[in-house]
Design brief:
270 residues; Spore Coat Polysaccharide Biosynthesis Protein SpsA, Chain A; nine-stranded mixed beta sheet; two-stranded antiparallel ribbon; 13 strands; binds uridine 5'-triphosphate
């Protein structure tokens, strides 16, 4: 299967990063030397995508567009076509993905949440394509600790796990520890077949009054069309202040090595 397009939802409110996000979109917050969303576009390019559909909000979304479309193209992204699409109201992640339907049309597509960055050397999109084995949708998963079961979508396994791949029978958004059907959580990287758009078009608001991507995944999984791929590492979540700090340190070490290690040691010894 050839996947040439990536949808990157970046129209959320980013309330957990206030006051940084009062004006600047969360996706443009700097991690080391570039905005968070640039890592997602670079990751999609490494997996062979040549088109990134970025879902932006009405008010400040044009700033994201400008970052990619100012005159000189960003190194490494010369072959990438950037196509913004506006989500007029933040009605939920499922709604944001649905807004990309006219640009994606009948192609399979990657979906990458802009506020999750893959750790260096742990790309997963290629593994999602392999796990699809033809024409399934594939969700990237991680085993979650108790506290995260009320923050993430959690899947219903539909069969045994072999080499990190399993069939899925459903998914529940933020079930909490008592209701969780498993410990396997959806972590922000997906390979969807275009049939997800038909389901999203019919999905009613769910948890928090938002149109939940997890509810559409649940529907598709009940049809036997979804697999899971268990990743070997968590993504870095830059949607909270501590997460942004952790990502900055990990990516800073990857970029500056011993120079930055010395800085950290110096700070820690104060
Ligand atoms: P989050 O759950 O992190 O929500 O969205 P948020 O609104 O951005 O942040 P908080 O909770 O207020 O701090 C996950 C991803 O989905 C996108 C976000 O931009 C983020 O990449 N999203 C969410 C949309 O594009 N539109 C929405 O309506 C909701």
């Amino acid at each position: 299967m050839n996947v040439d397009v990536a949808v990157i939802p970046a129209a959320g409110r980013g309330t957990r990063m206030r006051p940084a996000t009062r004006v600047v979109p969360k996706a443009l917050l700097t991690v080391v030397d570039r905005p968070a969303i640039q890592y997602a576009v670079e990751e999609a390019a490494r997996a062979g995508a040549t088109e990134a559909v970025i879902v932006v909000d009405l008010e400040v979304g044009h700033l994201i567009q400008q970052h990619f479309l100012v005159e000189d193209r960003l190194p490494g992204l010369e072959g990438m076509r950037i196509r913004p699409v506006v989500q007029e109201e933040p009605l939920g992640l499922g709604h944001a993905v649905y807004e990309a339907r006219e640009m994606v049309r009948d192609r399979p597509f990657f979906c990458l949440l802009a506020d999750n960055i893959v750790p260096p050397g742990h790309d997963v999109l290629g593994s999602l394509v392999e796990a699809a084995d033809g024409d399934a949708s594939v969700m990237c998963l991680r085993r979650l600790d108790d506290e995260y079961l009320s923050r993430y979508g959690v899947v219903v396994p539909g069969g045994p796990e072999r080499d990190g791949i399993l069939e899925l029978a459903g998914a529940v958004e933020k079930p909490g520890v008592d209701e969780a059907p498993s410990r396997l959580g959806l972590i922000g990287r997906y390979l969807f077949q275009p049939e997800i758009f038909d389901i999203l078009g019919e999905t009613e608001p769910g948890v928090g009054g938002e149109i939940q991507l997890t509810d559409a995944i649940d529907e598709l999984a009940r049809m036997g069309r979804v697999r899971g791929y268990v990743a070997d590492r968590d993504l870095l979540d830059v949607g909270t202040p501590l997460g942004l700090l952790e990502a900055s340190v990990e990516l800073g070490l990857a970029r500056y090595g011993d120079d930055f290690r010395r800085v950290l040691e110096e700070v820690l010894s104060r």
